[in-house]
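Obj: model holo form, ligand = (S)-3-Hydroxyhexanoyl-CoA.
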Amino acid sequence: MADEQVARIERDGAIAICVIDSPPVNALGQAVRQALVDAVAQANADAAVDALVIHCAGRTYFAGADVREFGKPPVPPHLPDVVNTIEASAKPVITVIHGSALGGGLEVAMGCHFRLATPAAKMGLPEVTLGIMPGAGGTQRLPRLIGVAKALEMTAHGAPIGAAEAKELGLVDAIVEGDPLQAALEFARTVVADGTQPRRTSERDDKLGDAGNAALFDEFLAKNARKFRGLDAPAAIVALMRKTLTMPFAEAVRLEREGFLALREGPQSKALRHAFFAEREAAKVPGIGKDTPRLKIEKVAVIGAGTMGSGIALAFLQSGFEVILIEVAQAGLDRGVTTIDKTLAKNVAQGRMSEDKAARTRNALTPTLEFEKVAEADLVIEAVFELMEVKQDIFRKLDLHARPDAILATNTSYLDINEIASVTSRPQQVIGLHFFSPANIMKLLEVVRTDKTSDSVLASALDLAKAIRKVAVVARVCYGFIGNRMLSVRRVETEALLLAGASPYDLDRVVEGFGMAMGPCRIGDLAGLDLGWTPENSTGNTVKERLCEMDRRGMKNGAGFYDYVDGKPQESPAVLTMIDAFRAEKGVTPRSFGDEEILQHMLYPMMNEGAKILEEGIALRASDIDVVWLFGYGWPRWTGGPMFLADQIGLPAIVEALERMGPGHEPAALLRRLAAEGSSFVEYDKANGG
Ligand code: 3H9
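Output (holo structure tokens):
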């Protein structure tokens, strides 16, 4: 065997068993690939062996190619050859899938002659989510097993399917209960006893009826145009399958491999791989480990039943927690409960939740006006009005009523949590849990540790994030933490560009063209331009305030930067006239901005702020900042996030552009240093153990 540590050969009578044991996820690195080839050769050379079972030890089947090898020169045996070798075996090869068979993992399984799966197994070709296409026959074998339309969907979207569906589609031969290896051995013995010959996927064509149906591919692309916007891989996958499914198998696989390699070397795949690992890295916090004691969290109290509070309550309810929802007035409480009820009913109507589950979820909610009920909670999250006095009042009361070991969390977006914690007698129990709206949907959770938050509270909060299926990023206290602090910079920049001559519609068009879901002005309209604004406190010094003075408060009253006609945004001549007058009043002669200049203003000052956040230790890593933007603000994943993109643009070019932008744009010391050293944020993370 190539490497005893990743594989061993066992025997059960005339059945050889290749056990792959390469934690954590049995990724198909070089040693594993070699072991598979060796196992097939050995089984075929041994007259006493009648069949081979491929089995993965540990928590999952092969989770795919080893993505960490992608940046390095490929070392043989290459995965397509491994799969071909397995398929070519003269003796039957049986495999059993548990956990996940993903990407190269599913390709290996499809090269085997018989496939079994445990009831909880998942199977898919998620390569597209890493910006690549399958590179070991996946685009060719999957349609041969399950038909062209379904294979196209699975390959271009990348979502895995469960065992029951896989059985129904013909991707697996049987679902097996009990010990998977024993089930595979039993199946193998039957194959041998019946004299069943190897059944090679590549030789099948009974499900390829649609292979030459060009309309099927065109319609699929048209239907998914919005989802595929900006991405290279889905279109490449569709084009490849359209072109190759009518070709001889070997030629098709050769073209697939070419397509795979081209995408793998491209900028999008690099960025998407960065995003994949950045997400996993964010969960690792120095000083917090398995041994850090955790607090048990089963019951959560949420204070405030507004949009945020009810969204947070839903996030916990939907993950099986008991929730006490607390308000000061019945009307507010009712509104929150109605929001929750409506969401649950919508989930049921759309088939995302059974009626029974919805009823159980609803039963786990206790709405109340009694603040003292916080005493029952393991965790309290405050989501009330964003004002220091109000928050401190709540925390003073929490200090009186909450259990001594309860975690006391605030959902503040900007305020100083050290100050909030200081009014309690137990600041070590206080933490920021900053959810993003809508809290039951958005994946990001900024976990803000104060100067005094205990490790145990932090560790518990990180576990909690996982339990409610959020991606947690740890931040320290500063104005706006990671995400909103950078967003504030973009707001300032937006105002400056509007004053200098740019149109709000050009700003949005450029930012949306870059790949953000919405530009800065549309976001302002969506959030409400009058957040924190009153006629009394209006300075009238910004376009935003001027809009409020015109009673253009955003989407909610049908007018903001845009006019909203049937909810759809339309450019507003009145707004442009107002901005013209505003410039004249300020003595500004408007100038025009090119798209590239606008984009630089929308991105580089934010990247610069990211560098400051990093050098101040607010974020642990540059990649954590990327995760915040990818999961909290709809940043285009195929660019990897702001800091990764900064590396790709080149830090010296960013420094130079910031200097050109003038006062207010001074490059951060860290940015200057990395640029001068020819370094990057990725290198900075590596040097700092990230
Ligand atoms: C492919 O197959 C291309 C082929 O078509 C063609 C080739 C020629 N490689 O996610 P977790 C690490 S492309 C390397 O926290 P979970 C991960 O970084 C691949 N490492 O666990 C983490 O490391 P650490 C297609 C990998 O239980 C640890 O394993 N396959 C890989 O929440 C645990 O991961 C995919 O895209 C990998 N492929 O979820 C599947 N996968 O502990 C990608 C994981 O140091 N993987 N690691 O941070 C997944 O979706 C999830 O990991 C999985 C388990 C669902 C399997």
